[in-house]
Automatic annotation (TrEMBL):
<feature type="transmembrane region" description="Helical">
    <location>
        <begin position="162"/>
        <end position="179"/>
    </location>
</feature>
<keyword id="KW-1133">Transmembrane helix</keyword>
<keyword id="KW-0472">Membrane</keyword>
<dbReference type="InterPro" id="IPR013604">
    <property type="entry name" value="7TM_chemorcpt"/>
</dbReference>
<feature type="transmembrane region" description="Helical">
    <location>
        <begin position="65"/>
        <end position="94"/>
    </location>
</feature>
<dbReference type="GO" id="GO:0007165">
    <property type="term" value="P:signal transduction"/>
</dbReference>
<comment type="similarity">
    <text>Belongs to the insect chemoreceptor superfamily. Gustatory receptor (GR) family.</text>
</comment>
<keyword id="KW-1003">Cell membrane</keyword>
<feature type="transmembrane region" description="Helical">
    <location>
        <begin position="129"/>
        <end position="156"/>
    </location>
</feature>
<feature type="transmembrane region" description="Helical">
    <location>
        <begin position="268"/>
        <end position="288"/>
    </location>
</feature>
<feature type="transmembrane region" description="Helical">
    <location>
        <begin position="235"/>
        <end position="256"/>
    </location>
</feature>
<keyword id="KW-0812">Transmembrane</keyword>
<feature type="transmembrane region" description="Helical">
    <location>
        <begin position="348"/>
        <end position="366"/>
    </location>
</feature>
<keyword id="KW-0807">Transducer</keyword>
<dbReference type="Pfam" id="PF08395">
    <property type="entry name" value="7tm_7"/>
</dbReference>
<protein>
    <recommendedName>
        <fullName>Gustatory receptor</fullName>
    </recommendedName>
</protein>
<comment type="function">
    <text>Gustatory receptor which mediates acceptance or avoidance behavior, depending on its substrates.</text>
</comment>
Amino acid sequence: MHELQFLNIFNYCFVSPTYLHFDSLCNRYEFQHKNVFRNVTLLIVLVTCSVVSAIAVIAEFMQTSLLSVIGASSIILYTTRFLVMIPLTLWVWLCRHQLISDNNVALNVIQHKHAKFYPMPARRRTLQIYWIQVGSIVILLTAALAGQCITWWEIVVTRKEYFLLNVCALVALEILTLMHRMYIQCWALVIAHHLDELVGFVKNNRVELHLLRAAIVFWEELEFFKQRATSTFRVMNVLHVLDILITCVVETYTIFYVFEMGLSLVDALLNVITLTVYAATFFMFAYAHDLVKVKEAELKDALKSMQYTNLKRQSRDQKDFYDLVNLKLMMESPKITACGLFEINLQIFYNVFAAIITYIVILFQFRGFEKSP
């Protein structure tokens, strides 16, 4: 239950409308809405402030460097950030009832597991990793923001309030985007860790037949929840991948541009940290979803090998059960996709990384045309 309680932090980070609450009267846990209006209001205010400041900065670019690659790429970055945050704000409001339903399904699945299989081997030690990831995102980006503001304030040209407001709002939107992506990642890890426990449970040769039947039912319940989660996050998964692609391309090009202008690493500190955080969190996001696929494959292998133990001593009920298991194994497990366009796993990380390199090369080609007389 601790992994579900950890998800409450995303309610305080404005990206989740649900909260796991313990009802002392009924003596049970349940998900409920909390801070929905506050979260949506703050997101709207933050996005509005960011849009206003971004318009002022874009107007400045139009007078100076609209035709330059760095100016155009910055405008694309701002547009992408809003393309993610506006649907995210609507998602928090419009999907609040669907999220409550999905979260309660997950809660019932986990409670069913505890009732049938408890105690199981404690194989999860990831809450510390969750906290480290959240703390690293907030601390690194906040520290980089402070350094960037100090650097910009020392430059007379950028000593303008809307410049500082824009960079502060942009970093705040980045933190919220990263928090939402981590929220999706945590649900994938919850599924993967419970599949991992099932693998260890099935590999125990002394497990009784009725418990194995319950394990198959639990696996089906996990697959059902995975389908619901995929449906809930499908649009946001597409937007997150697009955001990662654009952000990494623009930030990488900006870093090279800063060095080309003869400036130091301190002047590009925010860009370096943003690029590092985005790349690292995207890898963990893809790895968490790939882990679900890996654990499902391990569970299927464990169920297959289980059938060939003590063949001579198997009863008729066991053989009938294994026939049902074979039918289950022949069915393809539902995949976690982004609107059916692509599967979320490590392969998408490699594909996006390759696309980032391609678009960086294209930007440098445009940069070469810009320099040529």
